[in-house]
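stage 2 :: seqdesign
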């Protein structure tokens, strides 16, 4: 029996440092050529306690696989309250899959979001292991709608912000200006949800340079952020209004068939390809 499931598809830029593939005509094409295309995966790396592998599906479609072998959950029976352990055979894993489409000419990704799988930002960590380069050499950043930038330009006075994110890394906390003492506290509990709320006095306002820096940081970690709200006004003494950038991401929705807990791959390929087609002209203008 085939059921269906709704998935959100989000859009991310992929930027490769000038020092990589410096003689290349298209750095993204050369990067993706490094991925293993054989039946036996070779580019398998450990990311955040899981085994990870990117498998090419077609020319522009890839599958980011997350393999879990340790700390497996028990299987329960709701009728008699009994539990049993999962006994996987040698080499077997529990697997989660995130599919994505790469527009190699414009330099962006259409990524299938799935809570149990890897976040899109984890791609930069995977490429770090693939290339043996610093993670900053490849940036994955979520794309905001044009209206987000228009609303920021409208409010000339930005006087507050509120940010909430889950399971932050030390680098993420540092980039958001969290003190060393608090970073140490948060890192003791990596599953902690963190909320930061800042308000300036009526006479003060954030500079455009500061907001630009915060936006760059938001784009870098946006898939981990549940709330990113700025408070702004059109005049120095005007009433403050909320600008919630977490609601301003470019996204599409895919209704994909599920066959015995497996995504019907052809459906996902069609959904990602369609999402790219629908938004390509908009992104061409936005990313130029």
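stage 2 :: out
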């Amino acid at each position: 029996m085939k059921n269906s499931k709704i998935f959100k598809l989000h859009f991310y830029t992929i930027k490769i440092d000038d020092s990589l593939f410096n003689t290349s005509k298209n750095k993204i094409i050369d990067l993706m050529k490094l991925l293993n295309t054989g039946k036996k995966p070779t580019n398998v790396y450990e990311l955040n306690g899981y085994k990870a592998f990117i498998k090419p599906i077609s020319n522009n479609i890839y599958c980011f696989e997350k393999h879990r072998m340790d700390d497996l959950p028990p299987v329960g029976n709701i009728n008699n309250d009994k539990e049993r352990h999962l006994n996987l055979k040698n080499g077997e894993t529990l697997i989660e899959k995130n599919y994505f489409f790469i527009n190699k000419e414009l330099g962006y990704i259409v990524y299938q979001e799935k809570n149990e799988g890897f976040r899109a930002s984890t791609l930069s960590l995977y490429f770090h292991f693939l290339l043996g380069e610093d993670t900053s050499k490849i940036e994955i950043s979520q794309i905001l709608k044009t209206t987000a930038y228009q609303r920021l330009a409208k409010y000339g006075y930005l006087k507050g912000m509120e940010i909430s994110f889950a399971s932050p890394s030390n680098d993420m906390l540092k980039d958001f200006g969290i003190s060393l003492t608090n970073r140490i506290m948060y890192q003791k509990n990596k599953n902690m949800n963190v909320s930061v709320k800042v308000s300036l006095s009526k006479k003060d306002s954030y500079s455009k340079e500061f907001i630009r820096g915060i936006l760059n940081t938001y784009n870098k970690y946006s898939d981990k952020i549940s709330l990113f709200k700025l408070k702004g006004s059109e005049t120095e003494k005007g009433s403050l209004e909320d600008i919630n950038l977490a609601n301003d991401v470019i996204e599409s929705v895919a209704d994909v068939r599920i066959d015995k807990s497996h995504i019907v791959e052809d459906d996902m390929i069609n959904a990602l390809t369609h999402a790219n087609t629908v938004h390509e002209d908009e992104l061409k203008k936005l990313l130029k």
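stage 3 :: structure notes
- Helices lie at 27-33, 122-131, 146-154, 170-175, 180-187, 208-221, 265-287.
- The two ends are 45 Å apart (CA to CA).
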